[in-house]
What does this fold into?
Amino acid sequence: MKRLVLIAIIVVLLALCACSPAKRIVGEWKTQSTVLGVVVETTYVFDENGTGKKCGAAEIPFTYEVQDNKLLITTSIIGVDVSKKEYSIDFKGNTIILTDENEVIELIKEK
It folds into this structure.
């Protein structure tokens, strides 16, 4: 009986400790790509409040939403939505792999 209670407590604790994708994505993430032979580094920052920014040649603010294992990023300029992208999210340790029909982005956790 004591063993069963202990197992139940461990299961409950593990369930409570599990981070949702929405919380796991918060932070600063970096990626590198090569464009015309030049290595370009881009930083993505995801804040807790659903906002973020993509920093490379320019800083581009965005809003984001995580539902299940999908990430929706909406980019707006002067209050007008100019881009909506939906990615599948795959967390692997300190790496996120974002995939859509056109690209795969591998982000590495910085902070």
Confidence is low (pLDDT under 50) at residues 11-18.
